[in-house]
Design brief:
Distance between the termini: 78 Å
Shape: elongated
Largest sheet: 8 strands, mixed
Number of domains: 1
CATH architecture: 3-Layer(bba) Sandwich
Structural class: alpha/beta
Strand content: 25-35%
Helix content: 25-40%
Order of helices and strands: HHEEHEHEHEEEEEEHH
CATH class: Alpha Beta
Amino acid sequence: MKTNRFNDVASFERVTPEQIERAREFQAAVLCDVAGRRGALHGDIQPLTQSMVVAGPAFPVEVRPGDNLMFHVALAVAKPGDVIVVDGKGYQSGALFGELMVTQAVAAKLGGFVVDGAARDVATLRDSALPIFANGRNPAGPTKGLDGRLGVPVSIGGVSVEPGDLVIGDCDGVVVIPRADVDKVLKAAEQKLEAEAQRLAEIREGLLVSPWLDDALRAAGVIGADETLA
């Protein structure tokens, strides 16, 4: 009897739909700040259009540079809503995906692509319903003959990504929040928005120097204890 070694690769625990919807209320920058300014992928990984927003559980994939065999396997086994996060080693001398794979992802109701590698067919992909983040573009196609890894922790853009972690991305870039930290980070994000709204109101009222700035300057030894900017 034939067996499928990939039957269980997508069975990991994920952030919940409720957590994902709450996360969509916040900019990636806000979530990154309250997560300790950690989790932001390097700035080369950007959306194909500025309006693309991704939010969902990470389905990590590691491929060999220039080869997308395991990326195709991930497309076949990922669950609806999953964001396929590909450690492509930053390879830019050929594309790891294009129109065909994105069309398949849309049909499978996946949540998006975040790829440390290049895309192609960009003129078409810009109009896709799938949020797509990549580190560049190249017309050359990939090979499909090398092994990789699925559904295990990977490192992409300088960040460790575990299966089921929260992936959130917008025009500023992509942030990954560990699944165990999501509720704490979302609560902190709400508090940060409240504080920022208060500060915006103060600026409009003419309070142009941030209240914390004097203390920070004294701590850094820039001004003395009896000096002030105000």
